[in-house]
Amino acid sequence: MSTVETVRGPVDSADLGSTLMHEHVFVLGEEMRQNYPDYPNSWDEERRVEDAIQKLSELPSRGIRTIVDPTVIGLGRYIPRLQRINAEVDLNIIVATGIYTYNEIPFQFHYMGPGLLFDAPEPMVELFVKDIREGIADTGVKAAFLKCAIEEQGLTPGVERVMRAVGAAQAETKVPITVHTNPHTGSGLVAQRVLKEEGADLTKVVIGHSGDTTDLDYLCKIADAGSYLGMDRFGLDVLLPFEQRVDTVAEMVRRGYAEKMVLAHDASCFIDWFDEHAKAAAVPNWIFTHISDDVLPALRERGVSTEQMTTMLVDNPRRYFEAT
């Protein structure tokens, strides 16, 4: 077994238990929140914290012991708020380091780096490694995995630079990686290629949002190259209906890929990308309890065994975080 860093400190990987592998406590644009606090939703710190505590407190009663939160720079990572929430919830929350962008990198990196105006080693690698080895800011909380993204825009220069920095940081620290991808553009395969070129271990990579497609050939290629498939958007039925998501997981299990899939919702207690009332009406099942209450019974009806569900919820997350 290995030690895994969480918001509340290190835990043994054997104690992670049933794990939702891609959930956000908050997704926030801090500059927008500070300058336009009522758009598109009002922000009341105390109310939002109490709401998060209530929503996360529903998970232990469903047997969920851990959530993996890939909220990084670009999504509003703020560890002190997470620490405050986690102090009231009996749940392991694992946090990440990295940068989330579909296009450009933050301006703080535009002019400093290899071959740039101020020529220097890649500063992102140094920052990511520091988050992993020393902790995030002065919180004492260490990141346990890395996060990057590639969307419909493809491998833009900014996306590639972040991805290569993430791959290099993984090669140095050996912590795992989660990648936001768009399976309809085949970007999971692109991410695997780039990360491998930087020395990353593809068996320690989750290709996120793979559950948004029913393309079984694509999913098998990702898994056969060694990575985990993030079947991690249950509840986002506007992107792919519930029945198709469940059918895809069941068929991949039937084909022998239970050991290469992890499950989650990509949900959040609060996200400021949408009006919250419109969001609730459009995707009512995009909540943390949907897998426990609806998905697992549906998988069981399709012949997925309790042992196979345990593989996806317990064994695969544990192996993902365990040192090799």
Descriptive overview:
The chain has helices spanning 30-35, 45-56, 79-86, 123-133, 157-173, 187-197, 216-224, 242-254, 276-282, 290-301, 306-321; strands spanning 3-6, 9-12, 18-20, 24-27, 64-69, 92-98, 112-113, 118-119, 145-149, 177-180, 205-208, 228-231, 261-263, 268-271. It has 324 residues and is an alpha/beta fold. The protein has a single domain, classed as Metal-dependent hydrolases (TIM Barrel, Alpha-Beta Barrel), CATH 3.20.20. The longest helix has 17 residues, at 157-173.
Considering the chains and any ligands shown, give keywords for the structure:
324 residues; alpha/beta; 8-stranded parallel sheet; 14 strands
How would you classify the helix and strand content by structural class?
A: alpha/beta
Task: Please tally the β strands and state the result.
Answer: 14
Question: What's the alpha carbon Rg, rounded to whole Å?
Answer: 19 Å
Classified in CATH, the superfamily is Metal-dependent hydrolases
Q: What is the name of the CATH topology?
A: TIM Barrel
> What would the average pLDDT be, to the nearest integer?
97
| SSE sequence, one letter per element | EEEEHHEHEEEHEHEHEHEHEEHHH
